[in-house]
From TrEMBL:
Boundaries of every F-box domain copy: 3-51
SMART domains documented for this protein: FBOX (SM00256)
Identification of the protein by name: F-box domain-containing protein
Superkingdom, taxonomy of origin: Eukaryota
Annotated PROSITE patterns: FBOX
Gene3D superfamilies xrefs: 1.20.1280.50, Ribonuclease Inhibitor
Location of this chain's protein in the cell: Cytoplasm, Cytoskeleton, Cilium axoneme
Pfam family, one: F-box-like
A GO CC annotation given for this chain: axoneme
Coiled coil stretches, renumbered: none
Length: 274
């Protein structure tokens, strides 16, 4: 019905309607059957600010041709403000899309990035590509890594360059290299970071570093190994600590470390957005 009446609809109305469709449908399907939408997609549009790309071997509808997407980004990359790239864990290694670096390196104005590929390892060039995203304010990295992967540059090396980051969440599965991860975090100069989520990474001690200075929210509910959080005494702006019911941290020792107005919650869903 919307497609049949699209000629009579203003562009902003049509954009708001199709904004709820998947990226694949907006980019590949609708332009084939809607001339008005096709005209919109050929020019600058806020519809491209939020880009979701799924790679799922079980769904042809969501599995995009990587070369085609990269060609599209050559024209619209600067318009993208938010990118979500998800890879199904059942996807075969041979189905992994062409370098993630080819996707993100063109997005100079990207502000929010979510990479969710827990079943895969990222190549060093993919991680280095993140270094150029100097406008990034929020990032989630949920990736697979291994001892072999750490023979390449450390996973957290690109974070040194992302000085605009305000929110960082990462689940890296790097238990075999937790000491390297701890050292990397210690040297991060992310003084604007206000939210940090540490997932499964093998850390037993929360690293001290400049990133603690402005930290307001720390979520370690998915970290089952973090026992020593003594450096939280330096996090004088912390107002919420999400521990989880089974956290190995000794709660009795937290009172002397945390600001008096800091709240401890068991469920990260209880964290209130500012």
């Amino acid at each position: 019905m919307v497609i049949k009446q699209s000629k009579a609809l203003p562009s902003d109305i049509l954009i708001s309607v199709f904004a709820n469709l998947s990226f694949a449908e907006r980019r590949l399907t609708i332009p084939l059957v809607c001339k008005h939408w096709r005209a919109i997609t050929q020019g600058p549009s806020p519809i491209w600010e939020d880009c979701e790309i799924f790679h799922d071997s079980s769904s042809r509808k969501l599995a995009l041709d990587r070369a085609q997407v990269i060609r599209w980004l050559g024209k619209h990359a600067e318009a993208v403000r938010q990118l979500k790239l998800c890879v199904n864990q059942d996807t075969r290694p041979g189905d992994w899309p062409q370098s993630v670096a080819g996707l993100v390196a063109l997005m100079s104005n990207l502000q929010i990035l979510e990479l969710d590929a827990k079943g895969f390892f990222l190549a060093a060039k993919d991680m280095r590509a993140l270094s150029c995203l100097t406008s990034l304010r929020k990032m989630q990295l949920r990736l697979g890594t291994s001892a072999e992967a750490f023979s390449q540059p450390a996973v957290t090396e690109p974070l040194r360059h992302l000085t605009a980051l305000e929110s960082l969440a990462f689940d890296l599965n790097v238990h075999s290299n937790s000491l390297q991860l701890s050292e990397d975090l210690t040297h991060l100069n992310l003084k604007g970071l206000t939210y940090l989520e540490l997932g499964s990474n093998g850390l037993s001690q929360l690293p001290f570093g400049p990133y603690l200075e402005q930290l307001q929210i720390l979520d370690i509910t998915d970290n089952g190994t973090l026992e020593d959080v003594g450096c939280l005494a330096a996090a004088t702006s912390l107002h919420t600590l999400a521990l989880g019911e089974d956290a190995p941290v000794q709660r009795s020792s937290l009172a002397a470390l945390l600001p008096t107005d800091c709240v401890i919650v068991d469920d990260p869903l209880m964290i209130e957005d500012d």
